Amino acid sequence: MTSIILAIVIGAAFGAVLDRVGAANPNVINRMLNLTDLRLAKAILLAIGTGSALMFGGQMLGLVDVGHMSVKTAYLGVFLGGLMLGAGWAAAGYCPGTGVVAAASGRKDALFFIAGGLLGAAAYMVTYPAWKASGLLDKIAGGAVTLGSVPGAKYEGLTTLPGDILGLVLGLGFVALAFALPDRLMGEGVPRTAPAE
Asked: Which of 67, 131, 156, 191 has its CA 20 to 30 A from that of 8?
């Protein structure tokens, strides 16, 4: 029961942050994708970089148990699904998490996005045998692997580089990139964020 309460509290806090940085507003997403407002991209880079640096730094100090690390299996369907998710994100202005946050903040269009996502998931479940038979779900590049070898983890590394140091360096690189990027690469200026409809 404590785990469920903790998950709800963390999820609500994460949703509030997503709403605060504009990730639940499709106009902000579209401006990020057409490079006229990179503030959200900078927030995403900062979050990923900070999380990576804390996780791998904590791992090196013995504060984080690598046994909790979960690595998903690589297969061609993941890349195809990623392209479809990216296209849907660009078209709708939502990804699954931000769509739920937008619906919670009162955006009615997000309800249609969520319904479409649930229908898509149902269609995938119904057609799963055909996808499995196509070979798109077969493992590639060793399946569940990490970029570098992480001491104590049950996953193999694609390279002999120390994975915890690689993760720390990449995380710090993302943080540096977040601060180095300008607010825009194209366009006349950064427009003000519109409130939720």
From this structure: 67
* The pLDDT value given to residue 33: 87
CB of 148 closer than 8 Å to CB of 161: yes
Which alpha helices (DSSP H) does 93-162 contain, by range? 96-104, 109-134
Strands 145-146 and 156-157: parallel
Closest to 95 measured CA to CA, from 86, 103, 104:
86
**pTM here?**
0.76
**Two tokens, residue 54:** 């804390």
Cβ distance 24 to 107 under 8 Å? yes
Distance set, CA 191 to CA 34, 35, 162, 171 (Å)? 13, 12, 43, 29
- The model's pLDDT over 84-119, given as tens digits with 9 standing for 90+, comes to 888 888 888 888 888 999 999 899 999 999 999 999
Q: Within a 10 A sphere around the Cβ of 10, how many other Cβ atoms?
A: 10
pLDDT digits (tens, 9 = 90+) for 147-176: 777 777 777 777 778 888 888 999 999 999
Neighbours of 184 (CB within 10 A): 18
Q: Residue 185, Cα to own-chain centre: how many angstroms?
A: 22
Q: Is 106 exposed, middle or buried (0-12, 13-18, 19+ CB in 10 A)?
A: exposed
